[in-house]
UniProtKB/TrEMBL annotation:
Source organism (scientific name): Gouania willdenowi
Highest taxon listed in the record's lineage: Eukaryota
A Pfam cross-reference name: 7tm_1
Keyword Metal-binding part of the UniProt annotation: no
Keyword Cell membrane: yes
Transmembrane segments annotated in the record for this chain: 48-70, 82-105, 117-139, 160-179, 206-228, 259-281, 293-315
GO-annotated molecular function: trace-amine receptor activity
Main location: membrane
Record's GO cellular component terms: plasma membrane
Family stated for the protein in its record: Belongs to the G-protein coupled receptor 1 family.
Membrane-topology annotation of the record: Multi-pass membrane protein
Keyword line: Cell membrane, G-protein coupled receptor, Membrane, Receptor, Transducer, Transmembrane, Transmembrane helix
UniProt name for this protein: G-protein coupled receptors family 1 profile domain-containing protein
Compartment(s) of residence: Cell membrane
Length: 342
């Protein structure tokens, strides 16, 4: 006779509940003190593990290519690309978090309590840093499109680097404020084989506002403004009516508009990947959720780190050109960093 069981398992960025119809003990020799493990048919578990493993490898590899590209080629050392570099570093590290998610697929945590805390902290730091960087990218594009004359003086490489450092510092600070109990790992586990961290209700609401509602509101408002200005400029460029800037400035404007469109796609992908997760986060208070839905939203949440470099591949010609340099090992040649890849 199959018993219906309800458990909690920690995953980034908060803990969650789910239901399972077929379970067994994570540590059979511990009896009732052990957590229960989810048992799935091979036809279900094998594709899940293959998919997560593939996403992990591709996420790490593609983001590593972005990191090498922007770091190596001096022509790409612009404020916007420095922000993309910060995002790629966060996404690169997220690729390794798939490993922990694979370990949690059956509902059991086989590592120590300290590793549970490490996973919790790293995941929160990386995801909050990614969200903060997306907001910085939106601000960068807003200034570039809506105030192009003052963009070179307002947004400089040094200021971009300072904003990136501040973003990561705030992410670390926010994480240690969010996770209250960090000195006593495992104290809130209800059974052996569980990875939970106590999070106060106020902290959960804070996370919802600071990591989703407020950033999304800023991003949407900025890109609505960018879209309106981009459409008006595109019409003026097409008709050549009312365009009083020199030809050189017109070319720069077209470049900025193209970058805004590309990064707009990046933001849309960001919202599509994160929104389902926070919908589930809100709905969990009304009851347990199905494990299939839980796995899907977590994987979708992490897959944003895989999606970002794919956007660069398809929409940035310079990135495709740089990939050829890297794959053919031309970047090892003397003076390759000075190559004109734009």
């Amino acid at each position: 006779m199959v018993t219906r069981v309800q458990r909690r398992v920690f995953y980034c960025p908060t803990e969650q509940s789910y239901t399972s119809d077929e379970t067994e003990l994570c540590y059979p020799h511990l009896g009732n003190s052990s957590c229960r493990r989810i048992v799935r048919p091979l036809s279900v578990s094998v594709p899940i593990y293959i998919t997560l493993s593939s996403l992990s490898v591709l996420t790490v590899t593609l983001n590593l290519m972005v990191i090498i590209t922007i770091s190596h080629f001096k022509k790409l050392h612009t404020p916007t690309n420095f922000l993309l570099l910060s995002l790629s570093i966060a996404d690169f590290c997220v690729g390794f978090l798939f490993i922990f998610q694979i370990l949690l697929m059956d509902g059991c945590w086989y590592l120590s309590a300290n590793w549970c805390v490490f996973y919790s902290v790293i995941c929160l730091v990386l995801t909050s840093a990614s969200i903060g960087t997306i907001v910085l990218i939106s601000i960068d594009r807003y200034i570039a499109v809506c105030d192009p004359l003052h963009y070179p003086t307002k947004v400089t490489p040094n200021r971009a680097k300072m904003c990136i450092v501040a973003c990561w510092f705030c992410s670390v600070f926010y994480t240690f404020v969010y996770i209250e109990v960090i000195k006593h790992p495992g104290i809130f586990n209800s059974c052996t084989g569980q990875c939970t961290t106590y999070i106060h209700l106020v902290a959960k609401l804070m996370h919802l506002f600071f990591c989703f509602i407020i950033p999304v509101s800023i991003i949407v408002l900025l890109y609505v403004r960018v879209f309106v200005v981009a459409v008006s400029q595109a019409r003026a460029m097409h008709s050549q009516v009312g365009v009083v800037t020199p030809h050189g400035s017109l070319k720069v404007n077209r470049s900025e508009l193209k970058a805004a469109r590309v990064l707009g796609v990046l933001v849309v992908g960001f919202l599509l990947c994160l929104t389902p997760f926070y919908i589930v986060l809100l709905s969990v208070r009304f009851g347990a959720i199905n494990m299939t839905h839980l796995v899907f939203v977590i994987c979708l949440y992490y897959s944003n780190s895989f999606l970002n470099p794919m956007i660069y591949v398809f929409l940035y010609p310079w990135f495709r050109k740089c990939l050829k340099y890297i794959i053919s090992l031309q970047i090892l040649k003397s003076g390759s960093s000075e190559a004109n890849i734009l």
